[in-house]
């Protein structure tokens, strides 16, 4: 039986994943494949570098907005007067922090397959990076939230957060024959009143959150459709497929 762990994106909720990892360690769930996107890519890479749940918890506690992400008022002014694209946040401190924690030499030697995703901005292609090639640039590319973070160049090509197209990257593990799959979903899916955004920044955050939810719903609908088709059942009921969620941690 091949086991897989899917780590989705979800803004600043990466610390929640560390709590799930502690539980998986307790029940001795050891995945053969770990696939992550956005904040999930950071956690997946950390696991591939040999970090345990306690060490990953320490990493996420270090990732506080005031320490690793600098909001750029200057970029807002540039947008007003020059009308050119500029992200809201400088992620150089985050990049430096991650580089100090992640040992990519261990990642390349790890027999567990690590896969992280990103989107090629120019071609609109979803791309997958694996152990042998993953470096700090790939991690930053997979977690480069559009509008908030600057895009990240990988091999001369600009990339954005993989969650834009595949926030729950489950298909790669299915292609590899995984049958025991754990999905850690960070974005609330239906049934939760999140309130209206009050600022432009909150509006952008909500729009991105909705794209993450839509990505998850599309994948799960397709999987459910295929499951029903193989069982010879009428898949039309998928049009009203119920999605439920519990509030995520703040």
Automatic annotation (TrEMBL):
PANTHER family: BLR7027 PROTEIN, NEUROPATHY TARGET ESTERASE/SWISS CHEESE D.MELANOGASTER. SUPFAM superfamilies: FabD/lysophospholipase-like. One of its GO terms (molecular function) is hydrolase activity. This is Phospholipase, patatin family. GO terms for biological process: lipid catabolic process. InterPro entries: Acyl_Trfase/lysoPLipase (IPR016035), NTE (IPR050301), PNPLA_dom (IPR002641). A motif (DGA/G) lies at residues 161-163. Pfam families: Patatin. The active site is at 38 (nucleophile), 161 (proton acceptor). It comes from Leptospira alexanderi serovar Manhao 3 str. L 60. Residues 5-174 form the PNPLA domain.
């Amino acid at each position: 039986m091949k086991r897989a762990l899917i780590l989705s994106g979800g803004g600043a909720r990466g610390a929640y994943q560390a709590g799930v990892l502690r539980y998986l360690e307790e029940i001795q769930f050891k995945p053969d494949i770990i696939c992550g996107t956005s904040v999930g890519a950071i956690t997946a890479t950390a696991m591939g570098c040999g970090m345990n749940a306690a060490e990953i918890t320490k990493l996420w506690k270090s990732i506080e907005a005031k320490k690793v992400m600098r909001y750029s008022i200057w970029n807002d002014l540039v947008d007003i007067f020059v009308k050119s694209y500029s992200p809201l946040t400088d992620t150089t401190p985050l990049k430096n922090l991650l580089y100090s924690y992640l040992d990519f030499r261990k990642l390349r030697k790890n027999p567990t397959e690590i896969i992280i995703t990103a989107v090629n901005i120019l071609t609109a292609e979803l791309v997958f990076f694996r152990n042998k090639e993953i470096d700090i640039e790939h991690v930053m590319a997979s977690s480069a939230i559009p509008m908030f973070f600057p895009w990240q160049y990988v091999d001369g090509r600009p990339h954005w957060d993989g969650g834009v197209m595949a926030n729950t990257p489950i298909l790669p593990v299915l292609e590899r024959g995984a049958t025991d799959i754990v999905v850690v979903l960070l974005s609330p899916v239906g049934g939760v009143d999140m309130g209206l955004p009050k600022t432009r920044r909150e509006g952008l955050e909500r729009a991105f959150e909705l794209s993450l939810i839509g990505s998850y719903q599309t994948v799960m609908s397709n999987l459910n459709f295929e499951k029903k088709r193989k069982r010879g059942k009428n898949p039309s009921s998928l049009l009203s497929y119920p999605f439920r969620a519990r509030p995520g941690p703040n």
